[in-house]
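Bumping with the actual sequence this time:
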Amino acid sequence: MNTAVLHGLPNSGAETIAEQFVRARLAGQSIPQFPGTVPRTLADAYRCQDFAIQRFPDDIVGWKVARVPAPFFQQFPEERLVGPVFRRNLRVARVGQVVDFPIFQGGFAAVEAEIVLRVNEDAPANRTNWTLDEAAELVRSFHLGVETASSPLATLNDLGPGAVIADFGNNWGVVVGSQVGEWRSFEELVVLSFIEDSFVGRGTAFIRQGALGGLVFALNKCAQRGRPLRAGDVISTGAITGIHEILVGQQSRHVFEGCGEVECRGVRATEYVSDVTR
């Protein structure tokens, strides 16, 4: 059997996809079209992501988690997907501070209000059967946050989960806001999102099925891929108010009722420079 085409997409094709996305991200540039055949299976999509991670000159410090849209369930039979968060793209928001984050001019960009969980200790390398209660014990801290989603390809989300997974899960950073100390006393959290002071979305975060459910998926999926979660990792657990497209220069505000706010502003992406050498 030819292992180069075992999953349907040839390794050469997966490597080309990874190389072109990584090159564009490092240069801070957009691309006009998907660089090859869009992966049709989870295996192919994550293989593209793995090739891209190998090529990217920075350390992974966490993962974004997102829902697989219902129309794609049959083709991609998992409820969620993951993508890496790199060290230089992890930003901390102080109270009252507006955090700048990079956007690929001509590509895709959005902000998503999310609960961000920080992991307390290394997860066992081969464990893939976590429960909600067991995952809760692995939470070091619970934060208000924002995923800053951006891709060099403007149409990435339109192409479905195969394309999204292949390009780092459409992630280009996480903003970690205020810590919520008594998070175990919450069952749900109402969140409002604004862009340029215009209301764009409202949603309710259900702590167990939403935030902890996202953590459980990340624990299981990352272990299956040979990338178990590590102490200190941040997990951005999924959009609460929706996916809100944003332009360079626009500012967003995300209000977590009774807990605080996170504010961030899109700026034009430039060349990505990391302290890590591979």
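The tokens above came from a reply further down the thread. DSSP finds five helices and 13 strands in the chain.
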